[in-house]
Amino acid sequence: MAETWLVIGLGNPGPQYENTRHNVGQMVVDELARRRNEGFKAHKANARVAETWVRPGGAKLILAKPNSYMNVSGGPVAGLAKFYGIDADHIIVLHDELDIPFDTIKMKIGGGHGGHNGVRDIAKALGTPEFLRVRVGIGRPPGRQDPADWVLSPFSGDQRTQLPLLVGDSADAVELVGEEGLLSAQQKFHAPRG
Q1: What pLDDT shows up at residue 193?
Q2: Most buried pick, 9, 109, 135, 177, via CB within 10 A?
Q3: Is 22 an annotated catalytic residue?
């Protein structure tokens, strides 16, 4: 039987946050749903969910967007994991990452939260940090801009042009993790674009 993966796109609810750097994880989950012509439905775990597959007969993907604010994502994630009976090692969390340059993706399992409050809250709620992360690079703010203001602001003009490629690559990375595992995805997506 094919594996099942819970794929969480982190972000903040509401139209004012929709196109901000902090919501890039949700943008990727939206792209995965769009590719499969799937819509999201309300779930009792305080999230919106779409159930689909990487490909017919392939790994099942439960795509989810918590309705909570980023910093309290743990409750919805833990609720979904319990509802679907999914262990932490089959949870993929997509989130923005300040310490990775824009247009770059890094993947890992476990480790620290690197100051990311959404990741911290999920690790606390699950009782383990041993879940997969697809870290979508948004880069550091220029000059002395506060990182909190940076993540809650929209992508710049140049970045907006490249954003569909970054979101598409991140979605491809999730699909590859689902089909071939983390190592395969790291080998493909950690290399510079050529």
Answers
A1: 58
A2: 9
A3: yes
22, 43, 90, 116: which one is catalytic? 22
Give the Cβ contact number of residue 6 at 10 Å.
25
**What are 87-114's pLDDT values in tens digits?**
999 999 999 999 999 989 999 999 988 8
The angle that helices 74-84 and 117-126 make with each other, rounded to 10 degrees, is 40
Average pLDDT, the chain: 94
Written as one letter, the residue type at 181 is G
Q: How many CB atoms lie within 10 A of CB 142?
A: 8
Q: Which residues contact 16 (CB under 8 A, 6 or more apart)?
A: none
| pTM: predicted TM-score of the whole model, two decimal places | 0.95
